């Protein structure tokens, strides 16, 4: 199975206790089945693009390089109206975590790329990908925005707002990419206690969660390499597991996540991809005025992920 497909079905591991662990095992099984059904039965060619942007976050080929005002699908400016009402909800909690602008560039083994531009001031993200002709957006409450050419309007879907999805999406990143579980679980628990869902912005969260101290132990070999942002030598952590030979994580001179290179060859995935993080751009994201559209599968997870079921 392709790594990009598995990462689209990220399954969350959000707690250390035995009871919560059993809860999450049942949740993970149901989430994966539900997600597979969702992917196989995507409905709505146009309005469904918003959901696709979340599930296909590792794909795409933006050519403009980032912050240009004429980016594909960027909403028309000049209205003087701020449609980003999500940033007004739990603002302090969100800004205490999302402290800086981030650009995440991903490329897979086919050369397909995605660029995600996160604006810390607006608590919003723009994503540009080769499989979509227009930009797509995400707000801090988990709404996904896409332009419907047929209806000539922006539309948003709330599938990613559900707690089940927030528990599902982060995680096969830990199971497949073998990222350390502790930091992700702690951040998720902290967010959950404040009424905020983790992984609203997909890969962007990793930039705020991981530090070099998280990659100690026998699973990684630490070496020094030239800092990607200059400033001397920086830590590189290479995977020891033979199934991940060639995989590594690099941090920059300020201890920020700079690059994850994943080369996976096991029963769950056979693929290769790179995730590059940069922090030197003044990102500006404008959430469009959109009509909320209910997808046929919007209630899928609330119906299908009842953890009391066997």
Entry summary:
The chain has nine helices and twelve strands.
Task: Describe the secondary-structure layout.
Layout (H helix, E strand, L loop, with lengths): L2 H5 L10 H23 L8 H7 L35 H7 L4 E7 L4 E7 L4 E6 L6 E4 L4 E5 L4 E5 L5 H6 L3 H4 L5 H13 L10 H6 L10 E7 L6 E7 L8 E4 L5 E9 L4 E9 L11 E3 L7 H5 L6
Parallel strand pairs: 6-12
Antiparallel strand pairs: 1-2, 1-11, 2-3, 3-4, 4-5, 5-6, 7-8, 8-9, 9-10, 10-11
3D structure, described in words:
The protein has 310 residues and is α+β, with helices and mostly antiparallel strands. It has one domain (3-304). It is built from nine helices and twelve strands. It has a twelve-stranded mixed sheet. A hairpin with a 5-residue loop joins strand 9 (248-251) and strand 10 (257-265). The longest helix is centred in the N-terminal third of the chain and has 23 residues, at 18-40. The protein is globular.
